[in-house]
Prior knowledge:
With 685 residues, the protein is mostly beta strands. Helix content is 5%, strand content 52%. It has two helices and 54 strands. The strands form eleven sheets. Strands 42, 43, 44, 45, 46, 47, 48, 49 and 50 form a nine-stranded antiparallel beta sheet that branches. Strands 12, 14, 15, 17, 18 and 19 form a six-stranded mixed beta sheet that branches. Strands 41-40-54-53-52-51 form a six-stranded antiparallel beta sheet, with no helix packed on it. β8 and β9 form a beta hairpin. The model is unreliable at 1-35 (pLDDT under 50).
Amino acid sequence: MSATSRSTRRAVAFLGMLVLMLSAVALGPAAKARAAANVAVELGYADNIRADPSHFPTPWSGASGVVFEGCAGSCSFDAGAIRFVNNTGVQVHIDYVKVHFGTCTFDLWNKNVPVPADQSAIYTQTISGASAGCPADGTFDTSDAGPNGANWAGHCDQSGVFPTIEFSIDGQPGTVQDSGQILNTKGVDGAVCGMGNESQQWAPAGSVPCVGTLLGLAPATQTDAVGSSAAVTATLTNTCGDPLQGVKVDFAVSAGPNSGVTGSAVTDQSGQAKFSYTGAAVGTDTVGSSVTNAVGVITSNNVSVAWVKRDAVLTIDPASATSDFNDPATVSGTLTDSAGPIAGASVTFTLNGAETCTGTTAANGSVSCSLTPQEASGPYPLTASYGGSATDNPASASGTFTVTREETTLVYTGSAHAANGRPYTLSGTLKEDGTTPIAGRQVAFTLGSGASAQSCTGTTDAAGNASCTLASVNQPNAPTIPATAVFAGDAYYVPASASLSGGVVFTSMTGHAYGLKSSGLVGITPTPEAGPVSTTVAGNSSPPCVLSISGLISAATLCANVSTAISPNASTANASVQHVGIGVLGVPAIQIGAVTSTSHESCTGGSGDATVASITVGGIAVPVSLHPGPNTVVNILGVKLILNEQLPTDTATDHTLTVNAVHVIVPGLLDTTVASSTSDIHGCF
């Protein structure tokens, strides 16, 4: 058919509809006129005696949404057909339908037939079989009806009859003319005049015959992501392109990864039916559609639906993360695609191309795992990667991970005791957060402070321990000296410092010496007196000798001295008196010749000695050795003499020794000590 012919056909059809509309407006209320105007009138011819599925009017009896005013059951159809399509949106009633062939009128059908919204009513022969002319038996073989209902069977000459369809919808009468002679097969007996099968597809009243059916499926190709929905549209028309409304279209995926998926839909006013389905796997599907009518099946072209993997989207949450060096850090992300979260997928995080960890996504697509940064402090790239799956493409994400310096603790572990002149080892332990040892770091140690400070450095071992030794301690005189350890920090660790609580206790040397001391009837303070001395350094206390003492007790050339030494630490006390005379009433005269005493203490041991030249009591000479044994006691004339009196006091760390050359005791009257030396050492370790 040419473009001009098609335009002419459509114009004629439009004029037929216009007649229907104008009739409705002229003959009834406005509301009903609008309803009638939205009821389309279509004409066709049904021939299942010489069946051809592509020509047979579709839809037909038994189709969903069809009110069928015709032969029910298994019938032989050779008849014209009229179809009313209700697009008013409300139910209408078809009061009556009559078809006129001149003076011949076919009035075969029920009156006041309800047609629900969006459904159609079909009027055709009401009994099975065929006839000719204008019988009133229920046949409607209009291809064999000539002028005024004459028998036109076998005629190939034009009858010149243009049937008129008279009807009323909701009380509004109307008429349309079959100007295209669809009902009477172009005015000839189509069965014998070249047509064979007389079926003609539905076409608008007033249109030329549009014999066949076209079922097309589109788009021809499409590409969709697995898990999404693919949609195809079937378009059902007659061969003139007029849409066929209210026809069930069946869809099927005949090949491909989703083979076996089916569905159906009913054509709309545009003759279109849509079908969508979700792809479950990657590949290419072949999709087709078909329409099954009363005499067979009409098939469409096949189309292709290519299913491709979804694009996965991976994010790092948050985009910037941070952690201390060598501290486990949790990194997180989310994996999704167009279908939503991706669960059960492995995601690998990589820090600076070195440290990695892998986690599995949860139901909401979230994923996390722990990695331990080994980089120096600073920002580094953090990447996340997903390898893809059967349904998703690989994905990656990048962010920034900032490594901060690890917290450190430093504990001073050196000895709490030291001595000048001796070696001293300073030590400490460096750890991460107080738990994990830090190896290979330099720790600076200092004993003392200010100008007298002594320093050295040590490097931590695998246990985090560092130490260094001062070959010879040289600190000023003080009972305690501070000891500190300092880690300066580096790109990996923050600084730390420590000190010995209370400081280092130093070994101290004390001493005391004098020539003469007396109490009782004669009181004499220690003369001369060296000390008491208390020091941690080497020194000497040596007051001037006293040449003489006069009185009830007289003495000549009295000397005393205390000296301290280091390396080794020691205290030494000495005292000497050239002569002592005691002339106290009630006490025998006592004469003591030259005497000396010495006392020496160190941490390894002590010693003492005394010398006595001579002693007389009441003119009687006391037999004495120049070096009397320790604690030699002589009692004479009521006088008690202790020669080389030694008084030691010892603990684990402290040692004291007092040596008195001569100790004179007259009970209740006099207590006199001659040449006394005391040496002490404290804080031995």
